[in-house]
Specification:
With 201 residues, this protein is mainly β. The protein is built from 1 helix and 16 strands. It has one domain (2-200). The chain has one helix at residues 2-18, and strands at 31-36, 41-43, 49-50, 56-63, 65-67, 73-75, 84-95, 98-101, 109-113, 115-120, 128-136, 140-147, 153-159, 169-176, 179-185, 196-200. The strands form 3 sheets. Strands 2, 3, 4, 7, 8, 9, 10, 11, 12, 13 and 16 form an 11-stranded mixed beta sheet that branches. A hairpin with a 3-residue loop joins β11 and β12 (140-147). It is elongated.
């Protein structure tokens, strides 16, 4: 989270310094809200064992009203664009005692609520992540999708390891350069590395 926030803050400051409107007389105040909420992402029915051909469902529920670490209540609708919030997750598999991303060809997903897309993280398109869009439904920002593994094994659902090394799922919400909300979360019942483990027989 600290690395992620530092990079984001650095980008904002760089943009400001390269903008001709950002001069010594500028009285712009930058506001950052930090939210920690570990009740956002859950696995339906907390399933830990599947049979081949069955699906595991990941559900994201982000309440519109959040409380910051400083007990400030924020309304996310005041800061999001197009009533959507984005994040990224990855499906991993245990292979010879090493946790590896599941290859692109072994992914079978079913979007139920909101959108989910598979994005490759390299030129070979073999190490993808899920780009998840949670859409506002009048109360919450919601997303639900299913994954059907194509072979037996031990699997893990977790954050995109290219974004952080602390097992956290991070959301950055901002529709103006002056105000940013950072939401930090972990998957419910995940391990110390932020990974939710399940087995496919």
């Amino acid at each position: 989270m600290k690395i992620f926030r530092f990079i984001t803050f650095f980008i904002v400051i760089t943009l400001c310094l390269t903008n001709t409107q950002c001069d010594e007389d500028d009285d712009t105040v930058f506001v950052v809200y930090d939210v920690v909420n570990n009740e956002i992402i859950q696995i339906e029915d907390q399933i830990t064992t599947l049979n081949l051909g069955e699906s595991i469902y990941i559900e994201t529920t982000i309440n519109n009203i959040q409380n910051t670490t400083n007990n400030v209540e924020v309304n996310l609708l005041d800061f999001v664009e197009n009533e959507k919030i984005y994040n990224s997750l990855v499906l991993y598999r245990l292979n010879n005692n090493t946790i590896e991303r599941v290859p692109f060809d072994d992914l079978n997903i079913n979007s139920i609520e909101g959108d989910v897309e598979i994005h490759a993280n390299n030129s070979d398109n073999i190490f993808p992540s899920f780009s998840i869009t949670s859409t506002y439904n009048g109360t919450d920002f919601k997303n639900k999708f299913g994954i059907t593994p194509v072979e037996p094994g031990t699997y893990f659902i977790g954050p995109n390891d290219s974004l952080n090394e602390e097992g956290e799922v991070n959301y950055t919400i901002s529709n103006t350069p002056e105000t940013t909300i950072y939401i930090t979360s972990t998957i419910i019942n995940s391990n110390n590395e932020g990974l939710y483990e399940f087995v496919v027989n």
